[in-house]
Amino acid sequence: MRPLFGLVLITFRELWARKIVLGLFIVSSLVLLAVTFALNLDVVEGSLAGIRLFGQEAAPEDMSGEDAPPLTLSRVVVAVESVVAGVAYWIGILLALFASASLFPDLQSDGRVELLLSKPIGRLNVLLGHMLGVWSAIGILAVYLLGGVWVIMSLKTGVWNPRFLFSLLLVVGMFAVMYAAVMLMGIWTESTALGLIVSYGLIFVSMVLAAADQIGPTLGPVGRPVFWGLYHGLPNFTEVTQIVSTLAKGESVSSWYPFVSSLLFGGAAYAVTGYWFVRRDF
């Protein structure tokens, strides 16, 4: 257990030392400061009386349309938390992949991998320690940002939205899924660039697959099964965005299938990577 923890700690420190991860931490801190000081909500007897954003004041009725429902305190909280969750999901995962893409190819570099494998620890434990280290670093960043926003907004308004915290699990989970593609390309080619291209390419493809209900019926007898095969087999990164937004709003999720199918893809990719890593002659 101690060697595994040591590998986790080494990977965690290596990732944390990278400037992009430090940049993510700084940006997250700025977001928390903005939510704390730049956004001020005047609450009178549990109702929203006014909003001040960067010194600009507005009344709730000024921010609602004629046919729109009144702007309530809970709607403001949900809106802020939804925006932060969406930004953390898209920009956060893209930058986290960029920051961590070179870790696994570097792990397999001459000299380093031989040193690790010379220790009394199995190859699967080396792989597991690496994965847990990367997940831990990204998870801590996600908890810092999303958990911080949740605590700040809840304390400022008295509106507690615990479902928002489930979006944190989706952010970390989908990062783990996309990092599986990076590792699979890493064990195959030891190329950082190709790992990023494939992972970002899968995200782009998911934008097309998200329109499956509109595109599927227009395809022919050959294209339709191929398209639906890709839909069910590849990670549904774009569709999971809707689940993140739904959780941030405190609503019930109608279907978890996009997230579950993405996890299955990630599990399969990690399994292939592990099999290849164990059998590879370093």
TrEMBL record:
Presence of keyword Methyltransferase? no
Task: Please tell me one Gene Ontology term that the record gives under cellular component.
Answer: plasma membrane
Molecular function via GO:
ABC-type transporter activity
Q: Which UniProt keywords apply?
A: Membrane, Transmembrane, Transmembrane helix
**Record's superkingdom?**
Bacteria
Q: List residues traversing the bilayer.
A: 20-39, 87-105, 126-152, 164-186, 193-212, 256-278
**Protein name in UniProt:** ABC-type transport system involved in multi-copper enzyme maturation permease subunit
Species name: Salinibacter ruber
